[in-house]
Amino acid sequence: MTEFNINRRNFTMGAAGLAAASILPIRAFANDVTITISSPWGSDRPFQKVVDAYNAKGTGVKVVNRFDGNYEQMATKAMASIASGHPVEMMITGWKFGYFAKRTLGARDFFDIDEASAEEIITQFKPSVRSLVNIDNALIGLPWAMSTPVTWINMDLWREAGLDENIPLDIDHAWLLEQANTIEKALGGKGHPTYRSALDLSNNEWTSQAYVQNAGGFILDGETVVCDSPAAIRGMKAFAEPVKSGAWKNLDYGGQAKAMFAGNIAICATSSSRASTAAASDIEFKDVMFPSLDGKRNMNSGGNFLAVYAREQELAQASMDFLKFCASPEGQLIWSEVGYLNTSVHDIPLQPLQTAAVAQLEAGLTSETIWPGKRGLEGQSVWREKVARVLEGVDTPEQAMAQAQSELSQLISAG
Amino acid sequence: MQIALRATLKVLAPYILVGPAILFVLVFLYAPVVFSGVLSVSDWNFISPDMKFVGLDNYRVILRDPQFQTALLNTVLYCAVLIPAQIAVPLALATLILRIRKPFLANAYKAALFLPTMLAYSTAGMAWLWLFDPTNGFFNTLLGWFGLAPSRWYSDPSLALWCVVIVSFWKNFGLNMLLFAAALASVPGSVMEAAKLDGAGSWRAFWTVELPLISPTFFFVAVTTTMSVLDDIAATIDVLTEGGPFGQSTNVLYYMFERGLRFFQFGQASASAVLIILLVLIVTWAQVRMFERRVHYES
What we know:
The complex is a heterodimer. Chain A is α/β, with parallel strands linked by helices.
């Protein structure tokens, strides 16, 4: 056994060695580097906590979270910054902007920046979500925020309409419509002080896509538009059915949020990311799965990924360092407060009102529609317009889907 | 030497004084117009290294686009409703306010009616979003008091355009009212007195004396209101309806904004910009032709 005597010199050297060992792995950058991340969340949102926690580590990289509006506004600013020769280092990019991020904005392939770090980051996420950030055979993002449409039930209105409180987690469209019609009959004519709509399935591209997929169809098959298939049309018919029956008063997406949290809608199909807001509200919500069609469900997801746009290697490396923290159990735990689905392999405690979303994630989620082509971003607008025309009864689902197929195909083939 | 320097400075002084303003206009107005013209015949997104000449393709694409056709039709509708309303109502209000005998009351009315003009479009739009809110809005509550069914207002395709009209009118009529009030107040009392002595009633005096005397202001208001209806209304559209439902409330300027800053089709956006410039030029020229003989500038 080797004897080790502690004297002043040994103690000093040992302490210095320990200090160096504890500093060196953390402080990976010789000089202080500042990277800016363009984000849809301001300093009052949980994402700032992730940034603050990383900055507190003193790695030599300082991350600045810059609120740049919604995904479209962020993309506009990114274009402007790239055009001016000063691209933002990182951007929280909507899933639907995948092709645009890679092909137009030039999102970097993580493996091109640093192979080992890329491997370390992506292996911390579930295999089922890894493909969502793989565009044109390049890993362009860390799968950050994932949500899926679920159904929220306002239990006060539900009870008031005399419905059974034992609501199954897995619900079907026909069953849900029956309940909605019961609520409409019970509360519609009574001048209920808050009640306005028995049901709201969200007038946006996301929930209509869910109906199309649950009916066995798709909007896009690769880069081919297939939204006019019999299955897709059947899905759209089911989607518009509650408007015809009067159970759904068809609000816009923003109006839905206000009405939902004011207690004006009895049943609301919308993003699972509203879990934390719903849990904190004064209304007693119950979350159940998005309605299946004839017992079938092929749900889609949405959200965003963290992408690197920095051109300089040092800034790109610094971005990867921040991404490693985001992917870590610590980063994921802080982020989980928001109510997005846990896409990582880490064991993160479930938040309130996440049961339905997790059940859908476990069943498998497709991506939201990622519009390809140089004019792909217009695809979302065309799709929304056609869906709105069906809901307003201006066009039949057959007419709208045929028009959508023609217009979307032209847009996608434009470049 | 000094005399020569002074003489040179005297000659150069106007150019030196006007120079910065001219430079400003050239850089921030005419240069972008010329650049828009170049972009309108190109395919370029500002970040791609290649700028491709595409001739009139961008014009062809937008002129065949049903969304552009709807936007153009809506623009005509907005102009047809808002231009007369934003001239006639402020003129009537200004005339009435000037007949209020108590100055305090007249000023209070002017201030109250001018207040919406001072608000930012975003603030005004947000306030009206709440008033029009389909579930908890003031107007639906009002309808409820009378036992009427709630309306979806800006979510309803048949009402969305009218919601934009209401907000835009509310936001803009105050300035015109103030301009008319100032012009009417400057009409000499002696002229009106003479008209009365000649037996002209209030209505006749207004049409034959006051209105011709304020014709320069009337002309100015007509031109600026036309530009405002074509231009500023896009801000109201953005906050209130985003052009929807399915393009029912959009206009050509909002269409241009969407092409450029939502879909990044800068060529098409520039082509729309050029068409808008032409439209404004034609309308302004027509207004000049229509009014020039009726406008009296003599003091």
